[in-house]
Amino acid sequence: MPGKPATDTPAFPHGRELLAELEALRGLLGRHGCPGEDAPDVLGLLRLCPGLRLDQWPELAARHGLQDWLALPLARAEFPFLARLQQVLNDLAFQTEHDPLTGLRNRRAFDRILARELERARRSGAALALAMFDLDDFKAVNDTYGHPCGDEVLTALARVLLEGTRSYDVAARLGGEEFALVMPETGLSKARGIVERILDAMRTRSVACPEAPPIRVTCSAGLACRRGPGDMSAQELYALADKALYEAKAQGKDRVVAAPLADLQPPRRESLVAANEKKFLFTGS
Q1: With 0-12 CB in 10 A as exposed, 13-18 as middle and 19+ as buried, what is 86?
Q2: Helices 107-124 & 234-250 angle (0-180, nearest 10)
């Protein structure tokens, strides 16, 4: 399907998410092909877009190469079953892709988003940052104050992540007391500033616990960034951020440690030393 990747966000609710869906669908159709006019079967795909007006569509289509998509206005009063169906689908999608305690994305949804942002960054050459967070001494909180208090601490960190990030950043609870944050088009210096503010907000926040006095909890963070057109898998970026997080714990917790820029690490150079020089280096004769 023709068109260029979407990089900016249109002025309507959930615009970035819609463009990401269209971009992913365009890629699938490009790989599997679209039937010609003489094909026996034609499949039409319907996606309701609340907040998007018909008069906005021409500019959006021209800007993002969507001229081959058909926009059809539907009045809620005339098609209430479609609105209800879309709401059911939205509810089911939210339940399957979000953590029930914190409301953040779960690991499965976050992995998909991270892979998508990595591909977008690879094509555009833009920077991309991944931060991993782990609550410090969380087991002691559960053991001392009980699991309901632990749940309040997890929820508090989720709120801090949502309050301290931008609309296009995506936070997730990976599991247990471990969280992650992907920051598109964000270099190392800016990402570090965002993470530092999150850690500061967490250490100064008082968490109210059931049947216990308010407590304060800190967290540690590992930060990894990539930039440039080089290929990097989500697993490789995770590994860099996880190693940096481990180092933050080892240095005393309640801090952020950044991994070296992945695409700027010096490549290995094959030795050009001749055989007799090698003999001298290893034997001294």
Answers
A1: middle
A2: 110
Q: Which two tokens stand for residue 246?
A: 């481990």
Strand partners, 172: 105, 180
Phi, psi of 183 (to 5 degrees): -125, 100
pLDDT of the residue at 37: 57
Residues acting as catalytic residues:
177
Q: How many helices (H) and strands (E) does the chain have?
A: 9, 7
Among the listed residues 141, 147, 135, the one whose alpha carbon sits nearest the alpha carbon of residue 215: 141
Residue 46 is which amino acid?
Answer: L
Within the chain, strands assigned E span 128-135, 170-175, 178-184, 207-209, 212-215, 219-226, 256-258
Alpha-carbon distance of 209 to 194, in angstroms, equals: 27
Is residue 250 classed exposed, middle or buried when 0-12, 13-18 and 19+ CB atoms within 10 A define those classes? exposed
Residues 175-204 have pLDDT tens digits of: 999 999 999 999 999 999 999 999 999 999
* pLDDT value at 164 more than 50: yes
Q: What is the pLDDT of residues 4-25, one digit of tens each?
A: 444 455 566 567 777 777 777 7
